[in-house]
Each structure stands twice: as structure tokens, then as C-alpha cells.
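FW: tagging you since you asked about this chain on Friday. Here's the raw sequence from the shared folder, copied in full. Didn't touch anything.
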Amino acid sequence: MFHRLAQQYRSVVHDLVMSLQALASSLKTCGMTASCYVCDDGSEDHGASFVADLGDQHMVRFLVSDYGISWVESRNGRELVKLEGAEAIQELERLSQFLQGLSKGSNELAAKAETNKQAALPPD
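HL: got it, structure written out here
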């Protein structure tokens, strides 16, 4: 039973690492500062460190490994919130949804601006 639980946890860690890499890439595409460093020693142990700058000296750090999962939010270098386990994953989900909303909103604004720009051009 415990072997199965350990394998399931490793699977969760693997999924989180892949999700963090995708989130960092997506944030960079949107012009935000984000990084995801993956730790893999070639054995079954692996993890990642994700850091994103949300502006106004507001930073988040999400660490995941076979040893644990944590979320740290800070502003001006001071730790505001530290969560672990399922709470940390829920906070990561909240951040991801918030950033997707921002991205969707900025894409809609860009589309409207392009439409207005086209409408303002004189006909050929």
C-alpha cells in the first residue's frame, strides 16, 4: 500500500513540474518575468522551483519535490504567506486562473484596438 502511495505522490510531483514549466513559459510569452528550474538527478527524485514577479515587488515562489510542496508569497522582500501541500497547490491554481484572465483580457483589448485601427483607416 505505501509503495503505491509513494508512486502516486511521485506522479503528482511529475505533473506539477510539467505544469510549472508550462506556466513559466506562458508568463514569459505575456511579458512577465518568470522562471522554472527543474531538479533531476537522473534517479526517481526530482522537483522544480518556480518563481514569478507579479509586479510592485510582489513575488511568488512554488517549490515541489519528492520531499514536499510549498508556496511562498512575498512583497518588498518580506514573506506574506507560506502554504504547504494541498493549500499550496490550490494557491497555484488560483494564480494560474487569475493570470489566464489577465491574458484573455489583454488579448481581447488587443483585438479591439486592431479592429478600431482598421475602422479608422481610409478605404483603398
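FW: Residues 4 and 85 are 19 Å apart (CA to CA).
HL: agreed, and The two ends are 73 Å apart (CA to CA).
FW: great, closing this out.
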